Amino acid sequence: MSTLTQAPQAQDPTSHPLLNSIVRQDRLVALLQKAGMHITRYSLVVVFLWIGGMKFTNYEAEGIRPFVKNTPLMSWLYQIFSVSQFSATLGVAEILNRVYEVASPDDGVRILVERLWRHHATHQQFCDAAFF
Question: How would DSSP label each residue in the chain?
Answer without folding.
Answer: -PPPPPPPPPPPGGG-HHHHHHHHHHHHHHHHHHHHHHHHHHHHHHHHHHHHHHTTSHHHHHHHHHHHHT-TTTTTHHHHS-HHHHHHHHHHHHHHHHHHHHS-TT-HHHHHHHHHHHH-TTHHHHHHHHT-
